[in-house]
Amino acid sequence: MKNWQELAAICRTCNCSVQYAEPLRNHTTFRIGGACSAFVNVNSEETLRQILGLCRDRNYPYLVLGNGSNILAADSGYAGVILHLGKEFSQIRQDGTTLYCEAGATLGRIGKFALEESLTGMECLAGIPGTVGGALYMNAGAYGGEMADVIVSARCMAPDGTISVVPKSEMELGYRKSIFRQDGRIILGVTLQLQKGSYGAIKEEMDSLLGKRRAKQPLELPSAGSTFQRPVGNYASFLIDQCGLKGASVGDAQVSVKHAGFVVNTGKATCRDVLELCDFVKQTVLEKTGYQLELEPVIVGDPAKPANMPEQEAVEK
């Protein structure tokens, strides 16, 4: 059992909010997940630095969360501190065709900003329901484009609180991967290089891609976005559909009848439901097609632990 008085003191001093035993289902687009020990809405780099120092000194696990759109949280929650970079980390600044976007700025908002300034390059990314920090962390992409196409550099904080600027050449960007998934640095903001374009052409392309998303993807139901990574030489959705798995379900987790590449939450799905369904899909696809599918969402917490609510420790008010 941990005593969170030191964390509470930091949050009081820095005037940021902290919640204890906070359900992660309230902060993920899948609407799944048990409680974390503490959920902090980080409001400044100094707050982040102080909390990282506390976590380092006390050996507290921590995890940075943006929009929670590519997350599958365990039913047992997360026994540690969730550091949420949200609206206080969402400024966008422009210098000609270059944008500096803080990590909590959503791709949709950046896309709208770029459109208003007649800057092209964000059209394929604007419909992804995540923050730009999370998008770079995963090298998110859609419709033939990805973050690697527009990123110049990222401003990051290391676990010891030091800040550095990481150029694209050092990011080791690949399909749904980056160096940030391995080295522990927290993305504070990114510099994007766009190009001057025609407002009308940009809007037409953006509207077209958003229309495709609405028509083909199950946006009306909670999900973590694409559930499986694209296998080399094929598409997960095609293989799953080919195996007749649309509509397959475990509990309230279901392979979308609208788009086979999505597992959706039709009610009160659990992490266990989702993983059991995904295992069934992976095994069926492997047996029938020879393709090995891999999960795309990041799993938070330990899915093997039984569902529970971490006890809220006494905190000095």
Automatic annotation (TrEMBL):
GO annotation, cellular component aspect: cytosol
Keywords: Cell cycle, Cell division, Cell shape, Cell wall biogenesis/degradation, Cytoplasm, FAD, Flavoprotein, NADP, Oxidoreductase, Peptidoglycan synthesis
One BP term from GO: regulation of cell shape
Cofactor: FAD
Coiled coil: none
Record-annotated active site: R176, S226, E296
GO molecular function: FAD binding; UDP-N-acetylmuramate dehydrogenase activity
Reactions performed catalytically: UDP-N-acetyl-alpha-D-muramate + NADP(+) = UDP-N-acetyl-3-O-(1-carboxyvinyl)-alpha-D-glucosamine + NADPH + H(+)
PROSITE patterns: FAD_PCMH
Family: Belongs to the MurB family.
PANTHER family xref list: UDP-N-ACETYLENOLPYRUVOYLGLUCOSAMINE REDUCTASE
Name by which UniProt lists this protein: UDP-N-acetylenolpyruvoylglucosamine reductase
The organism of origin for this protein: Ruminococcus callidus ATCC 27760
Gene for this chain: murB
